[in-house]
Design brief:
By secondary structure, the chain is mainly beta. It has one domain: Methylamine Dehydrogenase, Chain H. The protein is built from two helices and 36 strands. The protein is globular, with a radius of gyration of 20 Å.
Length: 447
């Protein structure tokens, strides 16, 4: 395995190491513009209930550090894009793409230039694609703002809206929009914005902060919008006018960079950086907390939880000690099981197993997730045992898997590869109230 796979992919290490010099620009561009699709004929053992078969992989011209794949309504197209740290002067390789799910061929490419994708794409009811783009100077590499961009299903720009009016010192986390059934868009920047489907402002809440809110709102079944960040308590907003329904203070300095999730009874689950998961009722009261240290661990939460039909909560751990791990909690916050890696190569420390990725819950009681060491796992959700594992080209950080109705899993890695992996499932668990990152394959962020 390449040495790069063993490097920690935390933000600070990226800034210290100019790894881009190891990824030649000409190789990227030649692979990208020549199609970049590779097919694999090795058939794993189909008797293994968690096996993976590579259907195709496509290499993009830059890292896919933040973006999680999204599927359109009929699951014929997968959308994703590129982002990387230390954008060099004149580096214009960033792109957002639409790929056929059948073979990985590009339908279209939207060129971002020096700008960086700072969200997972989200698909609107009319098939438009929403992304948050971090605006970056080609000359200096300095961040100058962030904008919400709407693209048609054909890849043409419909409109954009500036959601951060200056350079942001916050370079952690995602800003994926949430989309209501009527097409209203809720997105966090220097404020919480509600944007009409035509790109006009509906309302703006929370005032203007010196730091951008690098987190993503979610929408409850009654339309209530929930937002939390490292400078904002968990707050419930009226979707019509942005008025506050209630606000719930979490712990002191409980910075939150992971998107909240919503359980079957409306409970909002909020993982925070100090290693505390809060379960908050839809009326704004804390039901319980899970403190990482009570399970004998320390670390940070970046992974957004997923919830199954029984109310079991699944999420990952970053910078973990004695190891990073995937946790399954019972609905009352007690530990159901903990998955720790047991087969890392010699010389690879357990904290290189960081899990930013949010799990996807498939049929057949399988849990899928990616992790920093460059693996995609299938676990049995009953006991956390490994049923399958696939090694990617490079580590997986923020990207979370999508899973279509044919059981094909889509995920990105740091090398810029987009993978389509056939599994034994028949798709996302239809009975799970929040089966993957942002709630569904369109990444709408609503229950």
């Amino acid at each position: 395995m390449e040495l790069l796979k063993y490097h920690s992919t935390t933000e600070r290490r990226f800034r210290r190491e100019n790894i881009f010099k190891l990824l030649p620009f000409l190789v990227f561009m030649s692979l990208f513009f020549s199609g970049g699709c590779k097919h694999h004929d090795n058939e794993p053992n189909p008797e293994n209930p968690g096996y993976f078969k590579l259907v195709w992989k496509v290499r993009l011209p830059a890292w896919t550090y933040y973006s999680s794949p999204a599927l359109n309504a009929d699951q014929s197209v997968v959308y994703t894009g590129t982002s990387k740290f230390n954008v060099l002067s004149g580096d214009t390789t960033q792109v957002f793409v639409a790929l056929n799910t059948s073979d990985g061929k590009r339908r279209w490419t939207y060129h971002l230039g020096c700008n960086v994708l700072r969200s997972a794409p989200a698909i609107t009811p009319d098939g438009s694609v929403l992304i948050v783009v971090q605006l970056t100077s080609c000359e200096s590499g300095i961040i100058t703002g962030d904008e919400l961009v709407s693209l048609s299903s054909a890849g043409t720009k419909k409109w954009s809206y500036l959601i951060n009016h200056g350079a942001s010192p916050v370079d952690v986390g995602l800003s994926t929009p949430a989309i209501a059934p009527d097409g209203t868009i809720f997105v966090a920047g220097d404020s919480l914005y509600a944007i009409n489907p035509d790109g006009t402002l509906k309302w703006r809440a929370l005032g203007k902060f010196d730091e951008m809110m690098r987190n993503s709102p979610v929408i409850g079944s009654d339309g209530t919008v929930y937002m939390v960040s490292h400078n904002v308590p968990l707050t419930a907003f009226n979707p019509a006018d942005g008025s506050v329904k209630w606000s719930c203070e979490l712990g002191i300095n409980d910075h939150c960079f992971a998107s909240p999730s919503i359980g079957p009874d409306g409970t909002i689950y909020v993982p925070t950086s100090p290693g505390i998961l809060y379960a908050v009722s839809d009326q704004g009261s804390i039901k319980w907390t899970f403190v990482l240290s009570t399970a004998g661990f320390s670390g940070l939460f970046r992974s957004s939880p997923t919830i199954d039909k029984d109310g079991v909560i699944y999420f990952g751990l970053k910078s973990g000690s004695p190891s990073s791990a995937l946790f399954a909690l019972n609905p009352d916050g007690t530990v159901k099981w903990i998955f720790e890696p047991s087969d890392l190569p010699s010389g690879v420390p357990p904290d290189h197993f960081d899990i930013y990725s949010s799990p996807a819950l498939g049929t057949d009681s399988l849990v899928f997730f990616g992790q920093e060491f460059g693996r995609v796992y299938a676990l049995n959700k009953i006991d956390g045992s490994v049923t399958g594992m696939y090694e990617t080209s490079q580590g997986i950080t923020w990207p979370s898997p999508a899973l279509d109705d044919k059981g094909v899993l889509y995920i990105n890695d740091l090398d810029g590869y987009v993978f389509a992996l056939k599994t034994t499932t028949t798709g996302l668990d239809p009975d799970a109230p929040w089966p993957k990152y942002r709630g569904n394959n369109q990444n709408c962020g609503r229950k």
